[in-house]
Amino acid sequence: MNYQCCSRCVMDTTDPEITFDAQGVCNHCHQFDARARKEWFPNAEGRNRWEALIEQIKAHGKGQEYDCIIGLSGGVDSSYLALKAHEWGLRPLVMHVDAGWNSELAVANIEAIVKHCGYDLHTHVVDWEDMRDLHLAYLRAAVANQDVPQDHIFFASLYHFATKNNIRYILSGGNLATEGIFPSAWHGSAMDAINLKAIHKKYGERRLVNYKTISFLDCYIWYPFVKKMRTLRPLNYMPYEKNNALKELENTVGYKPYPRKHGESLFTKLFQNYYLPEKFGLDKRRPHFASLIVSGQMSRDEALIKLKEPIYDPAELEIDINYFCKKLRISRQELNNLMEAPVHHYSDFPNWDGRYKKLKQVQKLVTKILGRDIKVYS
Prior knowledge:
Blueprint: H1 27-39, H2 44-60, E1 68-71, H3 76-87, E2 92-98, H4 104-117, E3 120-125, H5 128-141, H6 148-164, E4 169-171, H7 176-179, H8 193-203, H9 216-226, E5 230-232, H10 242-253, H11 266-280, H12 285-294, H13 300-307, H14 314-328, H15 332-340, H16 353-370
Parallel strand pairs: 1-2, 1-4, 2-3, 4-5
């Protein structure tokens, strides 16, 4: 298609599935508006809804050591959520999954939050040889979603640990205000263990020893409907603004900001700011800025100016690439060869998309029969 950029946000035709209305406004903006009406409550209604949920969490957790669990990456969203949970009087177990790519600043920020709130911290250190082999398998597969090995183990570890310890409520820092727009065509679900195993089977070099996945049945049936696990997104019940959240974290716990989004992970930093733009022509700043625009936290003109700025400082990029190669035990030439290899889409490999579509059909049918939505996330 001919190049076009949304007249309201900054999403453009690098998303092959984007569409525009007569005014040049993209489908992502319209979808955000529709979701926001149902899922984002930055007002008194949201406060009342969340207070009711807090009472449910406390009631179920009565007599137990913890009433909920929070996955803490060290990023602004999860850090702010951990701080708020302390103010709400909740008793979360804080869990951090160390996949081998933590920046020193992320470690310091996590320690500062845990110390200030007096939380118990459970850190799951992922087997590095498993992670390394998965990273290399994904690089050889040449798919866009290189962050799946890291993201999947984060959520799988969190869900397994919560249900094993009878913790029903998982508090997530995910939110519409800063993540409301993301093109699904760019890559598939990080939860798709079928896709992950298929890619590793074809391109991996060793059997995964300690890397635990989460199955489709566990993710969508067993955990939410049998174990009654619920993932709640508290930031959707408040007027969440990232800059204000960052200032509060800085003033309250001495939190130190990262130079760029997802700076808490050295892998994610290189993946988003080098691998995706260079190999796929995708700039993840676009959906990030677009989310801030539609939620009223950034102007479109400001976003367009920022998009003209270089994604990576050349000297910093060289340092990060050298570290990346050293950690994965590959040469610079090997990385160059991987960067130049023909690309694949995640759907070129077995996945659970078919199962998910059937499940959504069943969900719609049940919703119609019962007259109410059946949700795993709230």
